[in-house]
Amino acid sequence: MNMDKISRLEPTLLWHYFNEITQIPHPSKKEEKIVAYIVDFAQRHGLSLKRDRANNLLVTKPATPGFEHLPTVVLQSHLDMVCEKNNDVQFDFNTDAIQTEINGDWLSAKGTTLGADNGVGVATELALLASDTVEHGKLECLFTVDEETGLTGAKALEPGFFTGKILINLDSEEEGYLYVGCAGGMDTIIRFKYESQPTPEKLFFFRLDVKGLTGGHSGGDIHKGLANANKLLVHFLQTISAESPLYISEIGGGNLRNAIAREAFVIAGVPFPFKERVRVLLSFFAADMEEQYGAIDPHIRFDLESIEAPTDIIDPEVAKRLLEALVACPHGVIAMSQDIEGLVETSANMASVKQNKEQGIMEVVTSQRSAIEHEKKAITEKIESIFTQGGAVVTHGEGYPGWKPNLQSPILQIVRDSYQRLFDKQPHVLAIHAGLECGLFLEKYPDLDMVSFGPTMEGVHSPQERLFIPSVPLFWNHLLDVLKNVH
After folding, report:
1. Which sign does the torsion angle of CA 426, 431, 432, 433 carry?
2. Which among 201, 257, 405, 465 could bridge 351 via Cys, Cβ 3.0 to 4.6 Å?
C-alpha cells in the first residue's frame, strides 16, 4: 500500500527511485548490491560509467540540447545508510527491504532507520540521469561509499576522477538551508583489559535498562541537548557506588560512532541490605532525568528488575576505573562558533560501550568534531588523557578535515538567487556541525566551488528518522532551476 502511495508522490521519478533504493540493502561497507544496481542502471540508459578501487561510481550525462555552453556540474551523494533499529524489531539490514510508512506529511520506516540519509540524494541523481525532460549542462553524478562509518569512499577518491569545478552535495537535511561549511571529525577507540572474577556471595543482582530515548545524529543533533543513554547509566551507577560497593557483570550501550546512544544496560550487584536503596535512588534519579530531558526525550524509561546472580563479574578495580572515566568523559556541545551564530563549533559524543567477555575487553568509542582543527585535537587529547589515567589503551582513527565556509562562493550566489526567485524569500546560509564529504573533496580538488542542500529530514541515524514529503518537490524544483542557470 505504501509503495503505491509513494509512487503517486511528486516528483514521481525521484520517488520511484527512492522507493527502489529502500528495497536494496545498503549498509555501510556492504554497498555491493546498490553499486550493482547503479552499474546496471547506467548500462540500461547508455550512460558513461567510471568505477574506482573503492567502489565509488561516476555516471556522466551529456548536456541537453541548447545547454552545452553551461559548465559541468558534479552532483554528489553517498550510497550507504546508517543501520539502526529498535531492540524489539526483528530486521536484518543485510537482507531485508526497508518497510516504509506514510503518516500525514512524513515518510518513515517501521522501527528502523529509513535511509533518506542519503537515499534521497541518490534517488535525485538517478532521476536526473533518467529524465528526458530536465534541462541541464553536462552532469557528473558521483556516488561515494561508506560515508557513515569514516568517509572512506571520499578519502579513497583520486584526483581526476571527475572533471567538474562546481560540486553540489545532496546530503543536507533541511529545505531552505544552504550549507557552505562543515566540521572535521576524529574517532577514538578506548580499550580496558579486565579479568573476570567469580561472583561474591550474598549480593542482590539487578538489570537496569535505559531506553526510550530519542537519539539522533551526533553532529546535526548534538546542539539539541538530547539525553545520552550511556551517560545516564554511568551517572546513576556512580550514584550507587558513592553509597555502596558495586559489582558489575555486564554493561553496554549505544551502537554507532555517529549516533547519540538511545539505549544502555547494566547487570550489577550490591550487598542485600542495599537492595531497597537501589530502587529509591533510581526513583529519585529517574524523576530528575525526566525533569531535565522530558521536553526533548518524553519517553525516557529506566527499567529495573531483579535477576539471578551471574557466575562472574568484571574485576572490581577495573570496573571502578572504567566507571569513573565514563563519568568524566565529555559529551555534548563543548563550544559554539564565534563567527556563525547558532553553529556548534566543537563537540564530543560518547557513542558506545561494548563488552567482549571472551577476550576480557571493554571497548568505548567516542567521536569528536570541530570546525577548528586544533580544537578537534584538543578535545581528543582530553578524552585520551581521561582514559589513559584510568588504565585504558587509547587509539584514534585517521579523522577527516572540515570545510571552511566561503561566503563569496559563486555557486552559493547562484543557488541563493535561484531560491529567492522561486520562493520569494531568502534561504538560510550556514555551516553544519555534522561531517560532510566536501572537506575531503576540497583536499584533492582545491579549485572546487561547493554548496550543499537537500529536503527536510528529522531523527536521522535513529529509528525515528523521517522525511518531510512536502519539502521534496521544493528541493527538486530548486535544484532544476540551479542546473539551468549555473554559469
Report:
1. negative
2. 257
